[in-house]
Give the backbone structure.
Amino acid sequence: MEERVPAREKVFYSGGLLGQNMLYSFMSAYILFFYTDLLGIKATTASLILVVASIVDACLDPVMGMIADKTRSRWGKFRPYLLFAPWLIAAATVLCFWDFGASPGATLAISAAAYLLWGMLYTVCDTPLWALSSVISTAPKERNLLVTLGKIGGMLGVVVITIGGIQLLLSFGGERNSRAYLLSAILIGVFAAVLIFLTGYTSRERIAPPVERISFRRNIQTVYKNKPLLVLLFSLLVMNLVINLMQGIQLYYVIYVWQDAGFVMKIGISLVVGMILGMGATPKLLHRFPKKRLYIFSCLFGCLSCTITFLLGQQNPVLILIMLGFNFFFCGMATVVSTSMLLDTIDYSEWRLGFRGEGIVFSTNTFISKFSGAVSRMMIGAGLGLLHYVENQPVTAQLQNGLSFMMLMLPALCFAAAIIPVLFYGITEQQRIHVQHELEKRRTTLSG
């Protein structure tokens, strides 16, 4: 009989993803500004630090997956990392936002080492936290529910930082006070570590590791012999740039374009309302329209909403916030549709190759997300360099127009570019239904 997951475990699992995404969102939103405007590191140099560290972090994902898969302990395969690593991540978060008052060279070295360490420790928790959902129950519906709750928790974590992060900084002294960042990092780091620890403490791994293992060499076929997955991953690489670019540049945008850091919270409200409405509307739309068509539709209208917002200029912040809400609506829609398409590629892999390869698919998707984050930081750094940005510089029309372009038109171009790869996504609705029927027959035969 399939065992149900107690409500307590579900709540704490969602809470663990909430804490994890609070850490990630705080780092994504504020670390570059902290480096450039508080530590005095050049924008191009600071961006290079983030890009290199992000690439290293992304490459560690499959390595961490293999390490966790080989782990055997009295706590299980994945739980040990959730019990012990969160406290190290909290310490690394504090280290990243600590102004030691050292020389420029020493400050640069400390900053680079701290951020690289943070990325490595984040991976140590990230992979096991998501993988835990695959072994927490033998019931597919329970596992799917855990993944859904994890996404909801992760979204709430983004919301908390998007809306509350700037308020936390302002309460501790403002966005140009290094002590405010340090105190905020301590508070967020400890809170997130507790949530992740409680996930590991309360969860149980109910599926034992299989005796027969698929070799890495064979398992990697799930990716390179799966054309629908490859084209979807290429599209997601570009699609993920939309939120990454907006999140990375928004503090510069509100300070220099709207000249009020408090607008970060208002952008956060637009994000919350837009994303939730977009995600909520998508399941019903999936019953009426093919997934590929709906994904293209969301990218196209996301591009149009960003372009219209840019053309409105900076004269009416309220109207721009409303238009940003439409942009986030289509981001939310694309997120849900692409996740559903990703699950279809796993079924396609089982149908074509004889094994599902969920682990390699999820780790590759995580790699793509992090690599996209690195690319977005590189684009932001290059953009700030072209604008000759220096910390606390006077507001000029050139700077405002440049930041507006980076905040709105670059995401618009990414929305448009994300359509191109998915045009070659070959899983039609008819084929998807055929694959599901075939897999059901195989499983019935094997069980019989």
About this structure: The two ends are 17 Å apart (CA to CA).
